[in-house]
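Query structure, 117 tokens:
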């Protein structure tokens, strides 16, 4: 395809509205590479830091990006503004163990017993 950029300027928007970047990524870079970059640049003052790439979801143009896709494959027509910066949203999900523990504690707290005399 003629006119397709070799690199994309990407800024990552965190849930609190702060940003990481912008940074230039080649079109051949994978979403997994983007996630690794986010983890390495995560602000030290944030409480909800991801531990692994599995804790992160990247959303671009309303779609959750898959780890094995390249930046070039994920690019939408909206991102093809020459010299523009693409903003991708980053969501940190809780590890499953924490969710399970919270659900178990909630069940224990809401437990009631009836006694028939």
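Result returned for the query:
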């Amino acid at each position: 395809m003629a006119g397709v950029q070799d690199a994309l300027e990407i800024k990552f928007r965190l849930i609190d509205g702060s940003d990481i970047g912008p940074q230039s990524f080649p079109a051949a870079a994978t979403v997994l590479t983007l996630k690794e970059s986010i983890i390495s640049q995560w602000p030290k003052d944030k409480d909800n830091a991801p531990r692994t790439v599995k804790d992160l979801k990247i959303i671009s143009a309303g779609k959750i990006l898959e780890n094995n896709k390249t930046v070039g494959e994920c690019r939408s027509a909206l991102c093809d503004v020459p010299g523009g910066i693409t903003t991708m949203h980053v969501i940190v999900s809780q590890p499953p163990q924490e969710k399970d523990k919270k659900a178990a504690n909630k069940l224990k707290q809401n437990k009631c017993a009836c006694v028939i005399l």
